[in-house]
Amino acid sequence: MAEKLIFYYIPLLIDYIKIYSNTAVVTAIIETLYFFILKNKTKKFLILVFIVNIFSNITLNIFLSYKYSQLNILKGEISVIILEYVIFCIFLKPTLKKGTILFIETTIANLISFSTGLLLFNIQ
After folding, report:
1. CB 56 within 8 A of CB 35
2. Domain ranges of the chain
3. Measured distance CA(53)–CA(35) in Å, rounded
4. Residue 20 CA to chain centroid, in angstroms?
5. What is the pTM (predicted TM-score) of this model?
């Protein structure tokens, strides 16, 4: 099993990261810029947004490479929104009202980056 991990899965993961790094970086930049424009977030939070988006985008794209369907895209995007929101809440510890606003902001950021990705990368 260790041999298969070393010689198959690790190189495969590295290949996936290379393949999806462009979309991940674009997504991370778009969503980080969105939160930057809101002007109520710290530098640490913006770095967190960037890192979380790199991770969530690559993870979602790897999943979709095995289970591609429009329904899985929808499920994946909803999962990403929830995951990002939870991580952001852990970092910011918002009140209920600010948490609701953060959820809306996270959803809008993901809609913007998803729409931009469709336009830039001609995903069908």
Report:
1. no
2. 2-121
3. 12
4. 12
5. 0.83
Determine the longest span between alpha carbons in the chain, in angstroms: 51
Q: Encoding tokens for residue 117?
A: 């990705």
Range among 54-58, 69-73, 83-87 with highest mean pLDDT value: 83-87
Two tokens at 43?
A: 């530098």
Residue holding tokens 């336009």?
A: 119
DSSP conformational letter for 64: H
Mean pLDDT of the chain, nearest integer: 88
| Number of C-beta neighbours around residue 88 at 10 A | 22
How many whole angstroms from its chain centre is CA 108? Answer: 13
Residue at token pair 């939870």: 86
Q: Phi, psi at residue 39, to the nearest 5°?
A: 65, 10
